[in-house]
Amino acid sequence: MELAAKKKITIEDYQKDKTTFYRITLKDMHLVSRNPLLATLFNDVGNGQTVTTEEIKNSRGKKVSQKVNRCYIDWRKNSYNEVVNQGLLVEKSIHKRNTNQTIICSLLFLSFGGALIFFFKFSELRIVMLVVETILLLFGITALVHSNNMISFYSQKGAEITNQIRGFKHMLEDIGNFEMRDVGDLVLWKDIMPYAVTFDLAKEVLKKLKIEFTADEWQRSDFYIHEPIYNFNSKGFYESFSSSLESSCSIGDASGGFGAGSGGGAF
Hints:
Elements: H1 2-5, E1 9-16, E2 19-26, H2 30-34, H3 36-45, E3 50-52, H4 53-58, H5 63-85, H6 91-121, H7 126-150, H8 156-173, H9 186-198, H10 202-212, H11 215-220, H12 234-249
Antiparallel strand pairs: 1-2, 2-3
Helix pairs in contact: 3-5, 6-7, 9-10
């Protein structure tokens, strides 16, 4: 959505068999030269200028899906390494948290297996084992929650930036509860709009801006309120794009498929 807000791509939705798909059109040709994933999507899956989530979904099982899979895995690794190199994450904490979760889940699985054996082999102990297994399950869930809450994978810098982003989103969600003029003029709000699009709050922000600022102020600014991206359903696009990627790569090469829940971040 960031690329769409910066007018480097355009995104349009269309209907086919009662399903909403999205057509992504390339406006800045330099993008594909710098990003192998986008190059593969536009040039190999699409026609070089446009690609649709329908085409990505239908590439499942084709040779190109393996290439998309590899490019996406590389993109995720590079994105992760970039965040680590910026000092926003603590890899030791991530490893510790993952290890704790693995140990807890393994113990729960083993205890459940043992409970099943006792349940069928020793009928007189079924009630006891049911109580014990319930206690162990509650303990395991509590331990998982405690581990997640106590071990943060953010560094101090990462936590500060994360809180700033959450606070910024909360501010946009509170549109209508404060004077937008107190935040800034239309020039500033024009710069804020791409983030409102990303958070799927553009419609609400734009509606309030139209009320607070006069027609003369709008005329003097270069803020074009009828940009299609401002009325766009970013959540729907993320879900469609991620679902299409997951479908395309679910039977990829030896590296296997991937969870494409964050696939929309490529745009």
